[in-house]
Amino acid sequence: MIYDIIAPFYDKVNREVDYVAWADFIERTVAEECAFRPELVLDLACGTGRMTLELARRGYDMTGVDASAEMLDVAREAAEAEGLEDKMLWLGQDMRSFELYGTVDLTVCCLDSINHLLSIKDIDKCLSLVHNYLVPDGLFIFDINGKYKFEEIYAQSTYAFEEDADVCIWQNDYNPRTGRCGFYITVFHEEDDGRYARFDDCDTERMYTLRSIKSALNRAGFEFIGAYSDFDKTPATDGDERIYFVARCKKD
Hints:
The chain has helices at residues 2-13, 19-33, 50-57, 69-81, 120-133, 147-154, 210-220; strands spanning 40-44, 61-66, 88-92, 104-109, 134-145, 158-163, 166-175, 180-190, 196-206, 222-228, 242-249. It has a seven-stranded mixed beta sheet with strand order 3-2-1-4-5-11-10, with helices on both faces. Strand 1, helix 3 and strand 2 (61-66) form a beta-alpha-beta unit. It is built from seven helices and eleven strands. It folds into two domains: 2-146 and 208-249, Rossmann fold (3-Layer(aba) Sandwich); 149-206, N-terminal domain of TfIIb (Single Sheet). The protein is of the alpha/beta class. Helix 2 crosses helix 3 (50-57).
């Protein structure tokens, strides 16, 4: 799995992400849109647990779900280093088929994890499970990469990152006809004897429109609340780089 390879680089690649401001946005949204304060929170596709830990620091009991064992190892070590392991439950599961031990009050899914679902069928599977495990009127807050990100930032770009003696090279290949962008990752890792081992893998994201995500939320039983281009809740368009969605779980 690609994220097993890039786990040591992941937080450096995303070092510009302001998780404190993002968590502030989540809490403001909950205060405005939810009639109760959540206690149990699911961080779906939690990666290295940066958001999971930020919310745990604020008093929430967290469950982090991710398919990458290496990413979860990074998250677990970070939680232990802060003494937050008692606030955490880590589950190595796919976001299309995860199982929880009970319901949660709030689900978040950050850093375009939804874009890794490559078909509407997979989107429907994921949203159906999120809906199933949310309490009535619980919120689902998540984001996607917008059309602009795929066409102007991903495109055919190549990036290189260094971490200590290791090097990660990231190449993109966006196909506007299919809306899919392939990521081709090469990592050079320095071994104890000074030689370098090379690891290669690839992954794909798909671009989804606002309309398609709203339709999927409706099919899964959610009430669409809003889609925003920033934490100040500016209404989003398909031309925005990142789009933040808020939806409410409705049950009979």
